[in-house]
Write a structure and sequence with these properties.
The complex is a heterodimer of chains A (619) and B (102). Chain A is mainly alpha-helical and 619 residues long. Chain A has helices at residues 7-22, 30-49, 83-104, 111-130, 134-152, 159-190, 195-201, 207-225, 233-236, 242-251, 256-263, 265-269, 272-294, 299-319, 323-350, 363-366, 368-382, 388-403, 406-434, 451-454, 457-466, 477-481, 494-519, 529-535, 540-587, 594-617, and strands spanning 58-68, 71-79. Helix content of chain A is 71%, strand content 3%. The chains are: A mainly alpha (619), B mainly alpha (102). The interface between A and B is medium-sized, with 10 and 15 residues.
């Protein structure tokens, strides 16, 4: 049984290789089927092995990757209570999204490239999840970054898409550098990169070092998870095909940062300051992204900002040490956000490629099934009572509330405000897309939606709605499962639990009411200046453009013109000119006249004789 | 009879100077060659004189070698000179400028 563990990541890799080598020779539907089948098989292996992960879990060592004096990084996999549910979620959701993609990419001429990258992405993501040490984790970390880049710019003939891919790659690279520094620091201080070993040895770290490493890990996670201040790439990443947005930029890759912080939570909690910073960044991002989501006009950008906001909750949970709550929210979020993205892909198809929600509306009349699926997603996202999103969000907020102290009370306040905003923008989306009058331009031709695109939505809707059963308040399954790794949440008083649940439900109702008053039926009002500010994410792009990109470009121009043009080229060309002119001058000496030569010979001879004489006479 | 070394060296220097001025001043290639030969002879004279003065055979051995090489050199040089005269009808060094490679 245990020997099957490497199959989990290797099956998608095998699929990727198969499609790459044979994809063009097989019938057109084959690449999608191979991709879906390998990921589904991986999910099945994951499910079969799941019981083995209890307690200590199992480890597999495939080979030694790096071996040096006093340091080793084996290529190992770790299947323990934290990585097993995550791996199961990743493979299951990926399999559904792959199925969806077979429908979505049905007519795309570059299907082969798409599925090669898509399967490769799942492999890299599973490496992150199952990595036994940070070196392997980093391989997966960079792998998902590359696949994300290649898939955002999948339709690279549009310069906009290629630029979005580059932006995502570069911004996440900034975070990756910090992660790499943290890894090197850990390797030099603890002499190991093994995740268990690091967590075990973490108490031995000096407090300052622990804080510094914690902050570096936070920055690394912020890059991958699109948190403040490295969040600008995620909204642009929506340039990719919708399955890519659903899989990479909602369900799995962006949660890798939160997962990393859960994975290294014992290390993070060594430094209360770093943990508090993680929580604060999470809460601030949650609020910032929710505010921005409220004013977006493209359906996928709304969802992108909402992803950012929900990942903020996960970071808040990780910073509070509530690993169970963070992982719970991560998994439930993956279900309903994949559902929402894929439903959004169907909506975009049905409006003939229209992205702008102000030009949608009225879809409920024609597509009832899709409407109810979308309602399920919206309810989960808004955190309506008894859905999965309600329980998972509450678990995080409860952890913040029961910590006590003004700082965490403030974070709790941010979280509950975000909950209200989340409800407003979720229902806004629902009203603008599905209800009211149809505002689409009459010449928009709806594309057909194949069955493969609707079938995967049903299980996801069920998982999202009933995901709360995984971890009901008061000693949930997941918390109990994670006991070997993470301390159980501090038991809160029942009164506080009920009060929080009531407050959260109130927020959902209030958000619903607000959205209904503002967006029901009425055509959207022209946007005000404030709305434009929020729509652009509080000018974050503009700010980075001015503060970083333009100075950097100016500096590059300076380097090209002055350093390269004048100093380097000038120096080389000047040297060449000097040599050429002196050569020309010297070549005039060899004019072919024998008498000139013999004169030079004679003079040279006399000179030599004279020198000898002088050195003999006056030694 | 015993010639002092100084006399021999003075004579060698004088002959060398004559040869050098001949090689430098004359325009006819034949005389330039002649001057070079005279310089070689002067050097040989100095070698032999030194060898006699210090009673070491090296100088005289060296002179024999020099003589052989000078003879070979003269053979080559003179045949080149002859060819030059046949082809160009001149031996004037100032007119022989084709070494410049143009």
């Amino acid at each position: 049984m245990e020997a099957a563990l490497p199959l989990i990541p290797l099956l998608p890799l095998l699929g990727s290789a198969l499609i790459l080598l044979l994809g063009r020779r097989l019938p057109p539907a084959a690449p999608g089927l191979i991709a879906t089948a390998t990921v589904a098989a991986s999910a099945a292996v994951c499910l079969a092995l799941f019981p083995l992960s209890a307690g200590e879990g199992i480890r597999a060592r495939l080979f030694v990757w790096i071996a040096a004096e006093g340091f080793a990084a084996p290529f190992g996999l770790l299947f323990d209570p934290l990585s097993a549910p995550m791996a199961l979620m990743v493979t299951a959701v990926s399999a559904l999204i792959h199925l969806y993609a077979t429908g979505y990419m049905r007519e795309d001429p570059s299907r082969v490239r798409f599925f090669v990258l898509f399967n490769l992405f799942v492999f890299a993501m599973l490496l992150i999840v199952l990595a036994d040490n940070l070196a392997i984790l980093f391989v997966g970390w960079e792998g998902v970054g590359f696949c994300s880049y290649a898939l955002i710019g999948f339709w690279y003939r549009e310069p906009k898409n290629a630029a979005a891919g580059q932006k995502a790659f570069l911004v996440t690279r900034v975070g990756d550098v910090f992660l790499l520094i943290a890894m090197l620091w850990l390797a030099s201080d603890l002499g190991t990169l093994g995740i268990r070993e690091i967590n075990g040895a973490a108490p031995a770290l000096p407090p300052d070092t622990a804080t510094a490493i914690g902050v570096l890990l936070l920055l690394g996670a912020a890059g991958k998870s699109a948190q403040l201040p490295l969040m600008t790439w995620l909204p642009d990443a929506m340039a990719g095909p919708t399955p890519v947005s659903a899989l990479i930029h909602a369900a799995t890759m962006v949660t890798a940062g939160a997962y990393l912080l859960c994975r290294l939570n014992p290390l993070l909690l060594q430094s209360p300051a770093a943990a508090a910073a993680v929580a604060a960044i999470g809460a601030l991002t949650a609020l910032y992204a929710a505010l921005s989501a409220l004013f977006q006009r493209e359906i996928k950008r709304v969802l992108a900002y909402s992803t950012m906001s929900q990942v903020g909750y996960m970071l808040l949970g990780a910073g509070l040490g509530a690993v169970g709550a963070a992982l719970f929210h991560l998994i439930v979020h993956a279900f309903f956000k994949a559902l929402l993205f894929m439903a959004a892909g169907c909506v975009i198809h049905l409006f003939g490629g229209e992205n702008d929600i102000t030009r949608m509306g009225g879809l409920k009349k024609t597509k009832r099934a899709l409407f109810w699926l979308f309602v399920a997603g919206v309810l989960c996202l808004a955190g309506a009572p008894l859905t999965g999103g309600f329980f998972s969000k509450d678990a995080i907020l409860l952890a913040a509330l029961s910590r006590g102290g003004w700082f965490f009370a403030l974070l709790f306040g941010l979280g509950i405000a975000t909950a209200l905003l989340t409800a407003v923008y979720s229902f806004r989306l629902l009203y603008l897309v599905f209800l009211g009058e149809r505002r689409a331009s009459p010449d928009a031709h709806p594309h057909s939606v194949p069955r493969a695109m609707t079938v995967p939505l049903w299980p996801l809707a069920a998982l999202g709605l009933f995901g709360g059963l995984m971890n009901l308040p008061g000693g949930g399954l997941l918390d109990g499962w994670l006991l070997p790794l993470a301390a159980p949440p501090e038991p809160a008083s029942h009164a506080a639990e009920w009060a929080l649940a009531a407050a959260a439900a109130l927020m959902v109702l209030a958000g619903w009411a607000l959205a209904q008053r503002r967006y029901r039926g009425a055509a959207p009002a022209p946007e005000t200046g404030a709305a434009r500010a929020f729509r652009s994410g509080l000018f974050a792009d503009e700010l980075y453009q001015r503060a970083l990109v333009r100075p950097f470009k100016a500096f590059s121009r300076f380097c090209r013109r002055v350093v390269d043009g004048r100093v380097i080229d000038g120096g080389l060309e000047g040297g060449a000119r000097l040599l050429a002119s002196s050569g020309g001058w010297l070549s005039r000496l060899s004019n072919g006249s024998v008498s000139r030569y013999r004169l030079a010979l004679g003079l040279g001879l006399l000179g030599m004789l004279g020198w000898m004489m002088v050195s003999v006479l006056w030694p | 009879m015993n010639v002092p070394l100084e006399h021999a060296l003075l004579l060698a220097t004088a002959v060398f100077g004559i040869g050098l001025s001949c090689a430098l001043i004359r325009r006819e290639l034949l005389f330039v060659l002649l001057g070079v030969e005279i310089m070689l002879c002067a050097a040989g004279l100095a070698l032999v004189a030194g060898s006699a003065a210090w009673r070491q055979p090296d100088g005289q051995v060296f002179w024999m070698l020099l003589l052989a090489i000078a003879a070979a050199e003269v053979a080559v040089g003179l045949s080149l000179l002859l060819h030059l005269h046949r082809r160009r009808r001149t031996g004037d060094v100032d007119e022989l400028r084709s070494l410049r490679g143009e």
